[in-house]
Amino acid sequence: MTPTLDVSPAPGAAPMARMVAAQAAAEVRATLRNGEQLLLTLIIPVLLLAGFSAAPLLDLGEVRRVDFLAPGVLALAVMSTAFTGQAIATGFERRYGVLKRLGATPLSRTGLMLAKTAAVIAVEVVQVAVIAGVALALGWRPQGSPLTAALLIVLGTAAFSGLGLLMAGTLRAEATLAAANLVYLVLLGCGGVVFPLTAFPEAVRPALELLPITALTGGLREVLAEGAALPLGPAAVLVVWAAAALALAARTFRWE
Amino acid sequence: MDRTRSVSVRPQPNDQNPMNNSGIPQIGLNFRAEILDARLSAPFPAAEPRAGPSRRLLTLVGMESAAVEIDGLVKRYGRTTAIDGLTLTARRGEVTAILGPNGAGKTSTIEICEGFRQADGGVVRVLGLDPARPELRARVGVMLQAGGVPPAARAGEWLRLVSRFYARPLDPAALLDRLGLTGHARTPYRRLSGGQQQRISLAAAVIGRPELVFLDEPSAGLDPQARHACWDLVGDLRRAGVSVVLTTHHMDEAEKLADHVVIIDRGRVVAEGSPATLTGAERQLRFRARPGLNLDELLTGLPDGSAAKESPAGHYIIEGPASAGVGPELLATVTAWCAAEGVTADDLSIERRTLEDVFLELTGRELR
C-alpha cells in the first residue's frame, strides 16, 4: 500500500529571505552538532581563557590576566568560526557535491554566501555570550564601547571568512582540513591571543602586527582593556585583509 | 554480421505507421544502426500511442517547446571528445531514457542540461531556455549520480531544507513515507544504505514539484524493493505530466519506464525510438550449442530473407523473413538441422529481441 502523492508540476522558488534563513539555520545546526567544530569554537577558547586566567604563567606586569586574555580569546573565537570552521565545512561541502547540488536549487550563490555569513555571525553571537560570561565570572572588567568591539569583530569576520573561503574553494578538502588547523595553531601561538607580542623578538614584531589575528587581538585589547576609541591601525589591517581575501576567493572559488 | 544485415536491413514497405518519420536515428549512423533503421519502419500498431503526429507537429512548429532539445552538442575534456555532435529531443510529459555504455557521454550530456557544465559546441534548450538561466532552477529537479548531501545531515532534515527553497513543495514526511524511508527520517545520511541514500536524492529531485526531472542513474545500487519504489515514483511523475529524463545501464528499466529511448555511444546517438520500435515486433529463435556451427549451411535450408548469427560464441539467434517471422516450419527446420549436426539445442526459445540485444548490437560486446 503506497500512499498517493500529488506530484503534478507546481514549480516556483521560495522568497529569497526564506531560502537564506533555512540554509543559515541548517549551517548553524551542523556547526553546533559537530564535535570537532565545538572543540574549536567553544571548548578550546574557554579552556584557554579559564586556564591562563587561573594560572600565573604569563608575565603581564600590571595588567590583570583576565582583562588581557578575554579580548584575545574573543579574537580566537572569531578566527575559529569564520576561518577554520568555515574553511573545513565548506571544503567538505564542495568535496561531497553539496555545493553542486545546492546550485541546482533556487538558492543562488549569493543567497548561499549570505546564509553562510549569517550562520557564522549567529555562531559568533553564541561564542561571545559564552566567553564573555565566563570572563565576567572570572572577574573581567571590560572597558570601551561594545559597539566598537563589535565593529572590529565584523571586520575580522570578513577577513577570516575571505581567507577560509579562499582555502576551501581552491584546495582539496583534506588539504583544507590540514592547512586550516595548522594556520589556526600558528596564529593562536604568534598572534597575541594568549602570549603577548612582547614575548617575541623585536625584529619579528612588525611582521606579526600585520597578521589579521594580531590586528584583531590588538584592536580588541585597545578597546576592551584600555577603553580606546576605534584603533585605526588594526582596523586598516583587517580591511585590507578582508578586501584582498574576499576578492581573491571570489575569483578563484571552484564550486565543484 | 553480414548475414544479419542481408535480412534485417532490407526495407519493409509501410506507410501507415505514424512513427515513420519520428524516432529514426538522425545522426551518427554507423552501419549497425541501419539494422534498427529498417526495424523502425516496420509496422508496430502499438508503438507510442502517446506520441502521435499532432503532438510532434506542435513541437515542430514551435508552439510547444520540448522538455529538452539538444542539437549538435559537443563537449571536450582536454583532447578527449566526450560528446561528438549529439542531437536528441525529450518531449514534454514523457519519460526519456538515455542508454549507453560507461563513458558514452550520458552524464556529461545530462550535466550540461542541468547547467553544471558548459557545452563546447551545439545548442541545448531546456524547457525552451538556455540551461544556465536561473529561473530553470525552480522548474527543474535534479538527482546527481552520487553525493550532493552532507553526510552528517539527517535524512528528514535535508529534505525539509531542500523543500524550503520552493514555493509549493511536497510534504517531506509524505515523500519519505512514499519512498519507504519514514523510519530513517532521523538517521544521518552517511549511515543510510546505498539504496536509501539514492532514494533521498531522488526525493530531493522531486520535492519542489518540478516540470522536468533529470535523474542520473536513479536505480544504481538499489535492491529490488527500492528499485520498484523508484519506478513507481517515476510512473507517478509521468502520469502527473512531469517530463523525466533519466540515464541508466538497466535495459529493463528503460524498457519498463521509458516512452522514448535514446541509445548513445562514443558521444553520439546511435539509435532512438520507443522500446517497442527499438526491439521490433519480430520474434527470434534462440538456442545455445557448441560454438562454430556452420550457419551458412543452415541458411540454405531456410526461407529467403532469414538470418542467423552466433553472438557471443555458442549463442545462436535465428530470424525468419520479415513477412513470416519464426513459424513452425522454421522451428522444425532448425531443430532438424541441429539433429543432423548431432548437437542438442539448449535453452531453445522463441522471443522478441530485448532492448539489451539491441544495445549490445549497437555498442558492441567488448568491455570498456
Automatic annotation (TrEMBL), chain A:
<comment type="similarity">
    <text>Belongs to the ABC-2 integral membrane protein family.</text>
</comment>
<feature type="transmembrane region" description="Helical">
    <location>
        <begin position="70"/>
        <end position="92"/>
    </location>
</feature>
<feature type="transmembrane region" description="Helical">
    <location>
        <begin position="228"/>
        <end position="250"/>
    </location>
</feature>
<keyword id="KW-1003">Cell membrane</keyword>
<keyword id="KW-0812">Transmembrane</keyword>
<dbReference type="InterPro" id="IPR047817">
    <property type="entry name" value="ABC2_TM_bact-type"/>
</dbReference>
<feature type="transmembrane region" description="Helical">
    <location>
        <begin position="113"/>
        <end position="140"/>
    </location>
</feature>
<feature type="domain" description="ABC transmembrane type-2">
    <location>
        <begin position="32"/>
        <end position="256"/>
    </location>
</feature>
<dbReference type="GO" id="GO:0043190">
    <property type="term" value="C:ATP-binding cassette (ABC) transporter complex"/>
</dbReference>
<keyword id="KW-0472">Membrane</keyword>
<protein>
    <recommendedName>
        <fullName>Transport permease protein</fullName>
    </recommendedName>
</protein>
<dbReference type="Pfam" id="PF01061">
    <property type="entry name" value="ABC2_membrane"/>
</dbReference>
<feature type="transmembrane region" description="Helical">
    <location>
        <begin position="146"/>
        <end position="166"/>
    </location>
</feature>
<keyword id="KW-0046">Antibiotic resistance</keyword>
<dbReference type="InterPro" id="IPR000412">
    <property type="entry name" value="ABC_2_transport"/>
</dbReference>
<dbReference type="InterPro" id="IPR013525">
    <property type="entry name" value="ABC2_TM"/>
</dbReference>
<keyword id="KW-0813">Transport</keyword>
<dbReference type="GO" id="GO:0140359">
    <property type="term" value="F:ABC-type transporter activity"/>
</dbReference>
<feature type="transmembrane region" description="Helical">
    <location>
        <begin position="38"/>
        <end position="58"/>
    </location>
</feature>
<dbReference type="InterPro" id="IPR051784">
    <property type="entry name" value="Nod_factor_ABC_transporter"/>
</dbReference>
<feature type="transmembrane region" description="Helical">
    <location>
        <begin position="178"/>
        <end position="200"/>
    </location>
</feature>
<keyword id="KW-1133">Transmembrane helix</keyword>
<dbReference type="GO" id="GO:0046677">
    <property type="term" value="P:response to antibiotic"/>
</dbReference>
